[in-house]
Amino acid sequence: MTRLYAILAAVFVAALVGGAWFASRGGDRDDQFSQCRSSKIAGGSDTIGGPFELLNANGETVTDKDVITKPSLVYFGYTFCPDVCPLDVARNAETIDLLDDRGLDVTPVFISVDPERDTPEVVGDFAANLHERMIGLTGSLEQVKAASRAYKTYYKKQDGDEDYYLVDHSTFSYLVLPDVGFVEFFRRDETPEQIADKVGCFVENL
Questions:
Q1: What is the residue extent of each domain of the chain?
Q2: Average pLDDT over residues 16-39
Q3: What keywords appear on the UniProt entry (predicted)?
Q4: What pLDDT score does 46 carry?
Q5: Gap between the Cα atoms of 10 and 170, Å rounded
Q6: How far apart are CA 80 and CA 92, in angstroms?
């Protein structure tokens, strides 16, 4: 009987642990990317991203459907940024090259939060100088504000000279998948290799 009790106890503990593990993953049962996620979004990933309407480098109006035709790494910044933006966008461009080496086609996207100075031509030149496939986008004040609000980014123009002012802004990069939407964000302290590994997981599980 003692041996039987021991076996039953072991089965009970195993079931308890297994049940706890299953419960802890209960919200991920139907999530095809559960093994890829490293961030938890308050309210869920569905609360970030969505439709936008902006201007491309040619001054043409484009929507998110026109832009996000492949897995895309999206960053909100501005071309006059003295330090953070060039480093972050260059990091994202390097990430894209690493993914290319792995046979994964991902598009880098740069959205300006400084539409007063960042004309379509300026944004287009900035993006092209960072990566040949990078899409540069800008728009009216209202269009940019709507896109920023959709992705829950922050930006604020600082006081200064009419032509020489800074813009405070958040520095996340967003992975957005066509027909899926936003799935993950990356902080600026993450390396190209770390981001490429995470992006690769999502792309390979599409």
A1: 1-30, 45-204
A2: 57
A3: Copper, Disulfide bond, Metal-binding
A4: 77
A5: 50
A6: 18
Is 85 annotated to bind a ligand? Reply is: yes
Short-list 144, 182, 142, CA closest to 48: 182
- For 82, phi and psi rounded to 5 degrees? -80, -25
Is 81 among the annotated ligand-binding positions? yes
Average pLDDT, the chain: 87
Question: Taking the model in full, what pTM does it have?
Answer: 0.82
- Per-residue pLDDT reduced to its tens digit, 117-138: 999 999 999 999 999 999 999 9
Question: Among all chains, which residue has been given the structure tokens 């900035």?
Answer: 126
Q: What architecture is domain 45-204?
A: 3-Layer(aba) Sandwich (3.40)
82: Cβ contacts below 8 Å, ≥ 6 apart: 166
List Cβ<8 Å contacts ≥24 apart for 190-193: 191/91, 192/91, 192/92, 192/94, 192/95, 192/98, 193/98
169 labeled part of a ligand binding site = yes
**Rounded distance, CA 64 to CA 40, Å?**
24
Q: How far apart are CA 56 and CA 66, in angstroms?
A: 10
Q: How many CB atoms lie within 10 A of CB 91?
A: 18
Instruction: Please state, in angstroms and rounded to a whole number, the distance separating the CA atoms of residues 156 and 134.
Output: 24
For 90, other C-beta atoms within 10 Å of its C-beta total: 14
pLDDT mean over 141-165: 94
